[in-house]
Write a structure and sequence with these properties.
The complex is a heterodimer of chains A (about 220) and B (about 100). Chain A has 8 helices and no strands. Chain A is mainly alpha-helical. Classes of the chains: A mainly alpha (about 220), B mainly alpha (about 100).
């Protein structure tokens, strides 16, 4: 209870409107949104799991996935979670220069991931895996495409946030309220963790392992 | 002097969560887990393949959500909002997958 009171005082103390919960409504809405994202990606992942073996035409998952490339992409996105949280930490210290630096690095890492995904999609398409080639390809592109869009929106949000800070359009007491400390940060870290954070999702229960122990 | 003290208290008040060094240590742990996940592709884990992947996935999820998404340091209501959605989603999709005989 005391913990709740302290946090409530903390949230309200940074310029948020007084609310019935004592917590920032913006922050609460962001966490509700992230909870609903679990439902969205849960549906997409479940569909992918159901359809991953449904290949009437075109290549199978184990014929096209490039695990080393995917691992590097996944690592890049994981590191962007670190740079994002470092940006939040710098914002908490009210260090604009470091905040902008880490936001830029995070956006670059996110853009690198999206670029890798575009490259991978192009390579898959050239190998005969179109969106409507098979149930597997449709569920694969839908799942990873949705994630790519999330990351892209995140990159735009980061750049806008960076621009706002750089142009000094936010008064200092309101800095804390900037999405960098709650929304963007949470969305970014959540997005970077998503089970589809690799361009090619892990073949859970599937047939990917080269030693044949995937099944 | 009073202003400096107030500023220091304010800064300390806002600085919740880990230090930058702490976040880097968390990232190293996540990188190691990721490397272990990737190694399951190259090394034969036998019957431990799937359980080990699932355990590592859950561990990464909890670490990211707790530290990088600040849930560990924030109000419990936020945790409830997020985990309620997660549990609801898992329940829905386990039921849906079972309906399609995914586990049989």
């Amino acid at each position: 209870m005391a913990d709740t009171a302290v946090h409530a005082a903390h949230d309200v103390g940074h310029g948020a409107h007084v609310t019935s919960t004592g917590l920032s409504n913006n922050k609460l809405a962001m966490w509700l949104f992230l909870g609903s994202e679990c439902l969205l990606f849960g549906g997409l992942i479940s569909t992918y799991m159901l359809y991953r073996g449904r290949v009437a035409n075109g290549p199978h998952p184990n014929q096209i996935y490039d695990i080393p490339f995917t691992s590097v992409s996944s690592f890049v996105l994981l590191m962007s979670s670190l740079t994002m949280v470092l940006a939040v930490s710098a914002a908490q210290r009210r260090n604009d220069q470091q905040t902008n630096l880490w936001l830029t690095v995070t956006a670059l890492l996110g853009a690198t991931f999206v670029g890798g995904q575009v490259y991978e999609f192009t390579a898959f398409y050239r190998e005969g895996l179109g969106f409507t080639t098979s149930l597997f390809s449709s569920s694969f592109y839908t799942l990873t495409g949705f994630h790519g869009v999330h990351v892209t929106v995140g990159v735009i949000m980061l750049l806008v946030t960076r621009s706002i800070i750089q142009k000094n359009r936010v008064t200092r007491p309101n800095r804390w309220k900037l999405s960098v400390s709650t929304g963007t940060s949470s969305m970014w870290s959540g997005s970077s963790f998503s089970p589809s954070s690799t361009s090619s999702p892990p073949d859970v229960g599937g047939t990917l392992n080269e030693h044949g122990n995937g099944n | 002097m009073a202003t400096a003290t107030e500023h220091a208290e304010h800064t300390e008040h806002e600085q919740h969560g880990l230090t930058d060094g702490g976040y880097i240590k968390v990232a190293v742990v996540l990188a190691v887990i990721t490397a272990l996940e990737v190694s399951t592709y190259y090394v034969d884990f036998g019957p431990f393949f799937m359980p080990s992947l699932m355990i590592m996935m859950v561990a990464k999820f909890i670490i990211v959500v707790s530290y990088f998404m600040h849930l560990k340091f924030d109000n419990k209501l936020f945790s409830f909002m997020f985990y309620a959605g997660l549990v609801l989603a898992l329940g829905c999709y386990f039921a849906a997958l079972a309906t399609f005989q995914f586990f049989s």
